[in-house]
Design goal:
heterodimer; A: alpha+beta; 10 strands; 56% helix; elongated; B: alpha/beta; Rossmann fold; four-stranded antiparallel sheet; 6 helices; globular; Macrolide_Exporter_MacB (chain A)
Chain lengths: 377, 227
């Protein structure tokens, strides 16, 4: 049926079956090239994905610090009002006070630690054990602190000689977030005597919104002098993702060397084939095949080799992708995500393209031979 | 009706400092339905003449008229198109495509046209040549005579005005050769196709209307059969 619609494909297909082993080996090169590109690409995507998973949802967070270089040691109430004004109405704005106090757990020797004062920690954290809100007295501890010192709601710790009751152990936070409470001890802000704040967290609903707010805060507060630094985790994430992109491109570049080798092997096979079939091609030209017809038949052979190798390569790559994602991300089905489709698709396209490009010279050589010379033998 | 009319054909080759004359001034005309053989020793220019008549090659001097149209100066692509429309070729070594069946081989000249009628016509031609039982066989499953019949059927698929045969019996035993020549004779008589056969084989001369002898690129004596 296909022969009816694509007679050139029929001839090309029959020609390839004439030297099965040779055709098979030639497309094996393409298979390897496609698998190399696709699976290295998918490996990069899996790495990036597992990194992003660890990173969590930090792209929408901002942290505002006073610029100690300009002798500004704290954010004032006025600064906080400006920050609240610049943030969108749905944003969570949490001013944070800090001081260093000797802290003692379980009657051990006191160690000097930073104590965080947060007015309404319920906006930022969830409790793993106990309750976060209402928070008027006592202390909250992060999960690492709780684990190290075996603390639970109701346990007692001593801060600066005063016994304080633990109200809750907090849920783990995102590893790279500046709000991460895992190693912190948090007390109500009202227990601080100082009026200024040492930092402020702004949590917006989206990364874009966070970026706009950051610019707004910089414009208002750093108008005359550099009063504050605004740290955007989103831009950090962007930088890291750019790095991954570069790594991926380099990996794909290395993999495409194997496609180059495959291309040369196809070039070789096609050249041999045109030499062997010199007279046949001469006959085709004699019985009325134009140069472009011969070109078409020969290129069709190269294309078929590429398709064959490409399809086999895609199937093997999906298998490799399942394994990669199973081990790197812990979810084999993660292979069916868009960036992977992109890599597999690109690998396939490169495979076919390589075959066609490699077939060009032999096809042109076959087509431009004078039939008289070819038939003379 | 004159199918091919060639006047003053000269073909020169330059090799090194020497000029070789493959053809040194030849007039050759061919009528529809005529079966002509061209004989001569090796190097006498037989194949060169056949190639020029078949539009595979161009003469250095002289003109070729195909059905009254001057085709001498045509470029490769126009000559190729004319070959496809009006000329059939039969070769000594058959030159069938080993990967295609008998029917597909017959279809080859028109294969890229995707015309559904071609397959039917190819079958009819093969049946006429006595290969009705061998339609779907590959060339390596056919005898020499059968292969040459397939090649003849291929040369007829485009309903040509002229069939050019280069040593058509060269690779066949005399019995098979006779059968092939019978076919040529029949095609010339029944289909009014002009046939030119270049040959060393004297057997051919029993079947042709006339024989042209080439010696050193010029026409020697000419013998007419039955006339």
């Amino acid at each position: 049926m296909a022969g009816r619609f694509f007679p050139a494909a029929l001839m090309a297909r029959r020609n390839l079956t004439r030297t099965k082993m040779r055709s098979l080996l030639a497309s094996l090169g393409i298979v390897i090239g496609v698998v190399a590109i696709a699976s290295l690409g998918m490996f990069g995507v899996a790495l990036q994905y597992s990194f992003t998973q660890n990173l969590g949802n930090v792209g929408n967070q901002l942290t505002v610090y006073p610029n100690s270089g300009e002798n500004i040691t704290e954010l004032t109430e006025r600064d906080m009002r400006t920050i609240r004004r610049e943030a969108s109405p749905t944003a969570t704005v949490s001013p944070v006070k800090t001081r260093v106090e000797p802290v003692s757990y379980n009657r051990e020797d006191a160690v000097r630690e930073t104590i965080y004062g947060i007015e309404n920690p319920g906006e930022l954290y969830e409790a793993k054990e106990g309750r976060v809100s209402p928070f008027r007295s006592g202390a909250l501890v992060g999960s690492s602190v709780a684990e190290t010192h075996d603390l639970h709601p109701g346990s007692q710790i001593t801060i600066n000689g005063t016994s304080v009751r633990i109200r809750a152990v907090l849920e783990e936070g995102d590893a790279f977030s500046s709000t991460n409470p895992d190693n912190r001890v948090i007390v109500p802000a009202t227990s601080f005597s100082q009026s200024g704040y040492s930092e402020a967290y702004v949590i917006e609903s989206t990364g874009t919104q966070a970026n706009e707010t950051a610019m707004g805060i910089r414009d208002s507060l750093n108008d005359r002098e550099q009063r504050v630094f605004v740290q955007e985790l989103g831009s950090l994430v962007d930088t890291i993702e750019e790095q991954f992109q570069i790594i991926n491109t380099v990996l794909a570049g290395i993999a495409s060397i194997s496609l180059l080798v495959a291309g040369i092997s196809i070039l070789n096979v096609m050249l041999m084939s045109t030499v062997e079939r010199r007279e046949e091609i001469g006959v085709l030209r004699a019985v009325g095949y134009q140069k472009r017809d011969v070109l078409k038949v020969m290129l069709m052979e190269a294309t078929l080799l590429g398709f064959l190798g490409g399809i086999a390569g895609v199937i093997l790559s999906l298998g490799a992708g399942l394994a990669i994602n199973h081990y790197a991300v812990g979810d084999a089905m993660a292979v069916f995500r868009l960036p992977n489709a992109w890599y597999v698709g690109a690998a396939f396209a490169f495979g076919v393209l390589t075959s066609i490009v490699s077939g060009l010279y032999p096809a042109w050589k076959a087509a431009s031979e004078e039939p008289v010379d070819a038939l003379r033998g | 009706m004159t199918v091919i009319d060639a006047q003053g054909l000269v073909k020169r080759y330059r090799t090194g400092g020497q000029t070789l004359y493959a053809l040194a001034g030849i007039d050759f005309a061919l009528e529809a339905g005529e079966f002509v053989s061209i004989m001569g020793p090796s190097g006498s220019g037989k194949t060169t003449l056949l190639n020029i008549l078949g539009l595979l090659d161009t003469p250095t001097e002289g003109t070729v008229l195909l059905e009254g149209q001057d085709v001498t100066g045509l470029g490769d692509s126009k000559r190729t198109a004319l070959r496809k429309r009006t000329i059939g070729f039969v070769f000594q070594h058959f030159y069938l495509l080993p990967t295609l069946t008998a029917v597909e081989n017959v279809e080859v000249p028109l294969l890229l046209d995707s015309d559904p009628q071609v397959k039917k016509r190819a079958r009819t031609l093969l049946e006429r040549l006595g290969l009705g039982e061998r339609l779907d066989h590959k060339p390596d499953e056919l005898s020499g005579g059968q292969k040459q019949r397939v090649a003849i059927a291929r040369s007829l698929i485009n309903s040509p005005k002229v069939v050019l045969a280069d040593e058509p019996t060269g690779n066949l035993d005399s019995e098979t050769g006779r059968q092939i020549l019978d076919e040529f004779r029949r095609i010339a008589d029944e289909d009014d196709v002009a046939i030119v056969a270049v040959t060393h084989d004297d057997l051919v001369n029993e079947y042709v209307d006339r024989t042209v002898h080439l010696v050193d690129g010029t026409i020697g004596r000419e013998r007419k059969n039955g006339g």
